[in-house]
Each structure stands twice: as C-alpha cells, then as structure tokens.
Amino acid sequence: MPDAVLSILYVCTGNICRSPFAERYTRLLVEQGVIAPVVTHSAGIGALVGNPMDPPMARLLEPLGASHEGFGARQVVADLVTGSDLVVTMESSQREWILEDHPTALRHTFSLGQLVRQVSDPDMAGLIGEDLLSAMGRFRSRARRQDDVPDPYRRGDAAMSEAAGLIVSALDTILPRIAPRRA
Q1: Could you confirm whether 123 is annotated as catalytic?
Q2: Is 17 among the catalytic positions?
Q3: For position 46, what pLDDT does the model report?
Q4: What's the pLDDT tens digit per position in 142-176?
Q5: DSSP assignment, residue 75?
Q6: This prediction's pTM
Q7: Annotated active-site residue in 12, 54, 85, 140
Q8: Which of 86, 147, 145 is nearest to 112 (CA)?
Q9: What is the C-alpha separation between 57 and 103, in angstroms, rounded?
Q10: Catalytic residue check, 95
C-alpha cells in the first residue's frame, strides 16, 4: 500500500458518541496536516441508524476545531469491515462481535486500547505505516477489557469528556505512526 490511502473504520455500540468522535477527530488531523490523508468511517454494532451525534459528545468536537455536521449513525455491515484496512473498536467486546461475523478481519481489527499498547511496544519501535500495520497484524497483543473506552451514553458530561479525552490521547499516539505525513 505504498501510495494507497489507508481506510479506517471506527466501531462502537450506537454510533452516536465514541466512534463518530474518533472519525471526526481523525478527519481533523488530516485537515491540519498532522497525518497523511486517510479515509475514515464509523459504524455501530447496534447503531441508532440515522441519528446525529449525541449533543454532549458533538459539543466536545467544537473546541478542537472539528465538526459533527452532516453525521448520521449507521450499522456495521460486511462491506465496511472488508473494505477497511484497519477496524478500530472502542471496546474489546465489540472487537469480538466483529470477528465472530468476519474472522478474516482478525489481522486488521483491534480495540483502541490494544492499538495503543501495540504502537507503544518496544518491538514496534521504528516501524511506521504499512510496516507497522503488518507487524501488528502478525504479533498483536490481546484485547483487554481494561483498555476499553467506557460507553458515555446517558452517563453525563463528565463521562463524555472522559471518553473524548481517551480517544484523543489514543489517536494522537496511534495515527502519526500508522498514517505518517509524507514529506
């Protein structure tokens, strides 16, 4: 995939909080030139199809400079999974759900926390882009529940802020390594 554009699918439960936040934050990093261009989507394993982002989570995008405008939740479908180079779930149980239906996606489906651990692993030092993704697919660590981004839906502003902070921190660690800016 030397000059190909990486395709990332973010997955959560309803596709109205965590995964659309990750999708829109990733787009922002592309627009700012922090990472190379990527195609990014989001979906839910139990999506509230057609719904906009949950307003408290959408408001958290604004100070970052990202927009929630035009977003509509959608359900995970086979084409989204098989058409993505990387599938990133917010919880380990969502990763398991994806892999039950799409076992061939094993080497490119990770929970967000699992990816952070993989990218931070000393054995992955010096690897970027396709080389890093390939190595992670071969030598992935186990997804762990303690790495999950807790579902903030209907749990108040503090839970939304916590989830958004975890996502931003994780993506700031992961994305520059898997989608490095080209000189």
Answers
A1: yes
A2: no
A3: 95
A4: 888 888 999 998 888 999 999 999 999 999 999 99
A5: B
A6: 0.94
A7: 12
A8: 147
A9: 31
A10: no
Of 17, 18, 117, 147, the active-site residue reads 18
Residue in the structure block whose two tokens are 């190909």: 4
Nearest to 117 by CA among 143, 84, 85: 143
Distance CA 40, CA 6 (A): 8
Position 139 scores a pLDDT of 80
CA–CA distances in Å: residue 137 to residues 91, 108, 125:
18, 6, 15
The CA distance from 153 to 14, in Å, is 9
pLDDT tens digit string along 26-56?
999 999 999 999 999 999 999 999 999 999 9
| pLDDT tens digits, one per residue of 96-108 | 999 999 999 999 9
Pairwise CA distance, residues 76 & 158, whole Å: 28
Amino acid occupying residue 31:
E
The single residue of 101, 107, 123, 172 carrying the catalytic annotation is 123
